[in-house]
Structure formats: C-alpha cells, structure tokens
Amino acid sequence: MKGIKPRFEFRAFAQNFGVVIEKMRKLSPVEKIRESSEIYIMSADNNENNTKVRDKLMDIKVFVTEKEGLEQWNPRMKGEFPMKTSMIKDEVFTAFGVKLPEFARDEYTMMQFIDEVIRPHNDLAPVNIFKRRFAFTINDCIAESAEILINGAYIQSVNVESVDIDAILKAKDMLSLNDYENVNYLLAIKRVIGMEPMPA
Questions:
Q1: Do 23 and 34 touch, CB atoms closer than 8 A?
Q2: What are phi and psi of 115, to 5 degrees?
Q3: Buried (b) or exposed (e) across 133-151, using 16+ Cβ within 10 A?
Q4: Which of the listed residues 30, 61, 81, 105 has the most CB atoms within 10 Å of its CB?
Q5: For the chain, what is the domain count?
Q6: Radius of gyration of the CA atoms of the chain, in A
Q7: CATH code at position 188
Q8: 167 phi and psi, to 5 degrees?
C-alpha cells in the first residue's frame, strides 16, 4: 500500500442528522450514490484495525494517529478470496489480535472463511453492514452522508476527510458538526452490537 497518503477523517453517527445533511446538499450537489453490502469482523481485543470483506476482498485499515480530534487511518492490506490459509494466518489474524484457530483447509472462499473460521471463534463476530452513501465535496474535502444497516439496525453517518486538517475543521464548522463525537466504524458497530457500551 505504498504511495498512498492517508487522509484524516471526522465521522459521526446519529439516528437523524437533519440540518447537517440539509447543509451538505446546499453546499454541494450529490456527486455519486453508492450502495454496498459488507461484512465487518469485530474483535473484542482490537480497536486499531478496521477489517471488512466486500466484493470478495479482505480490506484492512490500521489506525495511525489522532490530531485535532481527527483520526488518520492507513490501508494495511487488500486480499482477494479464495485466500490461502498462510495469508489468513500472517496478514488477517494478526489484525484481530486473538488466538489462531485450527484451520481445516489450505485455502478459503469468502463464505468458508466467515462460516468456518470467524463465526465459531469465541472472540470474533461477523457483522452484516449495508450502506447507501451519498458523496459530496465540502471545502475541498471528501464528504459523505450514509444510510446504514448494522445487522438490520438503522443508523445514519456523516463524514469529512482530507489530508488537510484545517480544511476538515472548517468543513465541520460549515456543517454544524462541532457538537458531534468523532466515532469510527469499529466503535460504532461495537456499540450497536453490544460489544462496547453506549456513551452516557
């Protein structure tokens, strides 16, 4: 994943963003609408590696640093299914931070990996995510509003990201996001499925 300059990101979750999304649509036309079904793999012992499967690809991003209340994540790997067990052991399970299970195959399809390796593991949980994402450009930043189902539970998300921290902070102010908590997908999903407590 060399050559990719990781962006900083602010992301918030709520049941309804109301005026925030109204402001997004006033500041920028919707540039693209995308829908995707993904499987995030939650580990009780991991809050620094965002691991998901989409379109038969294993996608892992790793937390780098936090500045000005923004988080920076960097692509760690992309692996295609069917995937060799050696790669699952060396690249994927190191991101989970849990004990290696026994592997019955030398290679796994995506669903074999989910059903035979992830589901039986006591410290891992696959979570089905559906996203409908609306892309914008706000203050020269990549911006997005999203309608999300987390194991069927509905929630909305708004995010702003860029390599320019000052530009993100300005965009947050323009969108009235300053009172929202910055929450990444890992934490949001864990809160919804009960792996992490909801904020008081």
A1: no
A2: -75, -35
A3: bbbbebbebbbbbbebebe
A4: 61
A5: 1
A6: 17
A7: 2.40.320.10
A8: -65, -40
Per-residue pLDDT of 54-109, as tens digits, reads: 988 999 999 999 999 999 999 889 999 999 999 999 999 999 989 999 999 999 99
- The 8-class DSSP code of residue 64 comes to E
Summary mean pLDDT of the chain: 94
Region of 16 (left: φ > 0; alpha: ψ -120 to 50; beta: rest) is: beta
Confirm whether 26 is domain-assigned.
Answer: yes
pLDDT for residue 67: 97
**Locate tokens 């992830």: which residue?**
118
97-131 burial, b at 16+ Cβ within 10 Å, e below that, comes to ebeebeeeeeebebeebbebbbeebeebbbbebeb
